[in-house]
What does this fold into?
Amino acid sequence: MSYNTRRYFEKRIRKKAGTAIHDYRMIEQGDKVLVAVSGGRDSIVLLKVLADLRRSAPVSFDIIPVHIATGFERDFPRIAHWIEKTLDLKTLVVESGISEILKESSDPDKSPCALCSRLRRGNLYSLAQELGVSSIALGHHMDDVIETFLLRTLFTGQIGAMAPARVSNDGNNRVIRPLAYCTGELVNDYFRFLDLAPVVNACIIRPDGKRELIRKYISMMEKDIPSVKYSLFAALGNVDMKSMCNRENTYAHPH
It folds into this structure.
């Protein structure tokens, strides 16, 4: 990848992340941000972008990279070494024992992914309270947001997605997604510039079939509507509540 191409992706992803941070007031002066780093592409890009923005941002904030070790990752020390060498940040590794918990507790007839996610999130929330951080930054991007929206709409009959910034259900933690304005394609393009292989994950669970189906549908729609991802994302912040099929929206007949 040429220098000019690298600079193009750097500038583009930093601008989009910076705009999302500004629009949703994700990070402010003096904040301490816990960055969840699984070792996958998205979380590595998130950490790199935040580290770069911190050097040029108009506000001062701290970054704490945290890796919740589930027992499925085989080579995270390599990622941690890259983070320390390249970004001058020390990664806090938390041994969660999640792989063993799943062996003992998960229903063999159901996917353990939901339980795994809850356990990882619980570890992050507890650690965030111990460290006194302002926010927990996750590496979800635009594709994740709109895929979740379509999954909930089509399979559960509920409209919802992943908010770029929100307070967690326990009311004690704030979750932010600085890559919310970035497509998965942009994140992957930028990751290739980093010249780093993602962590090897030994989880034997097959990918979420429903999510893969949604990705296929979105790809099909893009052929006829190239901007469909941006339109879907924009729609999530531009809801005409009066036109929704909500019983609370029922109005009395005019006299």
The mean pLDDT is 89.
